[in-house]
Structure formats: C-alpha cells, structure tokens
Amino acid sequence: MEFTQDWIMRQIQMIAQMLAKLLFGKETTDYIIEDEDDLNGTDLLYKAISELLASGDICGAEDLLFEALENGGKENLEVAIDFYAKLNKMTDAQLQAGNFSREEAEDGLRNAAALFGLEEFL
Predict the structure, then answer these.
(1) Where are the domains of the chain?
(2) How many CB atoms within 10 Å of residue 106?
(3) Beta-carbon count within 10 A of 75 CB
C-alpha cells in the first residue's frame, strides 16, 4: 500500500510540474498573486480555494475549482495545478479528514488537464 501511495504522489508531482512548465513556463507549481491591491478573477478563485482548503473542505474546494475550469479560461488551470500540488503535500490523515484520497487527487489533476485537451501530454 505504501508503495502505491508513493507512486501516486510521484505521478501527481510530475504531472503538476510538467503542466506548470509547459503551459506557464514556471519551474514551480505555486500560483502567485502578482498584485494584492488589484485582484483578478483567477486571484479571487485562488483565495477562495485556499480558504476552503484551510478549513479542511477539500471536496468543496475541488467543486469550486471545476466550476471555474468549466466556465473560465486556461488561466484557472494554473490554480488547479497549485491546488493538486498542495493536496499532494498533505498527509494521508489530512486527506482522509477531508474525505479525499490521493487517487482522487491524481484523477482530478488529469481531468482538469483534459478539459483543455491536454490529456495527450499525460
């Protein structure tokens, strides 16, 4: 079981890093707000998802994310990459407390990329 979890963690990390580099030219998976005084829609999405994550509502955060991905542009994918990279850094206990699993995190990241036709890169 531990080997499977480690493999899934590496998969999530590799996919997130590859998407960040390929789509945004970034070496990191972190979403960074450029100007706190002039927040755009993507910044607001990031803040809302971060608040949900901080409160332990992983499923609510993912629901909000996918609503934005389905209705918004590719810039929201940068928030998705950050979100799944953060989930990947959580402990199994934290994920379980949020009623979530690593398998769901990997599936979510793949589904987010697929919304933009990027499944061929995965």
Answers:
(1) 2-121
(2) 20
(3) 16
